[in-house]
Design goal:
Number of strands: 10
Radius of gyration: 44 Å
Number of helices: 3
Largest sheet: 5 strands, antiparallel
Shape: elongated
Helix content: 25-40%
Strand content: 25-35%
Order of helices and strands: HHEEHEEEEEEEE
Structural class: alpha+beta
């Protein structure tokens, strides 16, 4: 490429007449007070700047909102997990108590005897702490509370129980108080329910 060709390709704004400079670059010249021109964006260029500015602002707002939403969801999950952990610890002692209905087999049976069929009802404490004020309640076939037996306490890894005629047992549950003073009801099918508004020892 010759010097003339290279020079012609290296065009500067000053090489154009004043009235053609804006056409070449897509800008218009606004006269200054001293008569010189200053470059300002044309209408199309200004619209492009406005659009991209709006896109950037919207993107920034979306990112900020997304971060806030993630933080809020994380906080809620931590609160739920903490609540579940505390509730699990609160129910831990009561969960170790079981109530069962089993067949009663006499240790000694006389030859030729046909004893009445009976059920062995038990309350077992498999926890590490004792339970107190235990009441074993039998539900008969008419769904009435037909029998109750009270135990002052049941020590850890031990059980108490009662023997009742089979035809009088349709279900059984036990109520008891844990070491925190909370009153519970445990059914033979495993259901565990807290008894509300039960007065605690210091009330």
């Amino acid at each position: 490429m010759g010097l003339d060709a290279q020079a012609s390709s290296d065009v500067r704004l000053g090489d154009y007449p004043r009235h053609l400079r804006g056409r070449h670059l897509g800008i218009k010249l606004v006269p200054r007070p001293n008569g010189s021109g200053t470059a300002e964006p044309s209408g199309v260029a200004q619209r492009n700047i406005d659009v991209w500015g709006a896109v950037a602002a919207a993107l920034g707002a979306a990112l900020t909102g997304g971060a806030l939403l993630i933080a809020a969801l994380t906080y809620q999950r931590q609160i739920r997990d903490r609540h579940a952990e505390l509730e699990g610890k609160r129910r831990e002692q009561a969960e170790a108590v079981t109530v069962k209905i089993g067949n009663y087999v006499p240790a000694v049976r006389n030859f030729g005897e046909n004893p009445e069929e009976r059920r062995h009802l038990t309350v077992r404490n498999d926890g590490k702490l004792p339970i107190f004020n235990v009441t074993l309640v039998v539900i008969d076939k008419d769904r009435n509370e037909s029998y109750q037996r009270h135990f002052h306490a049941i020590a850890p890894d031990s059980l108490e129980g009662s023997v009742q005629p089979t035809d009088k047992v349709n279900g059984v549950y036990a109520t008891f108080t844990d070491t925190a003073g909370t009153r519970w009801k445990r059914w033979h099918n495993g259901d565990l329910v807290e008894i509300p508004h039960y007065p605690k020892p210091d009330e």
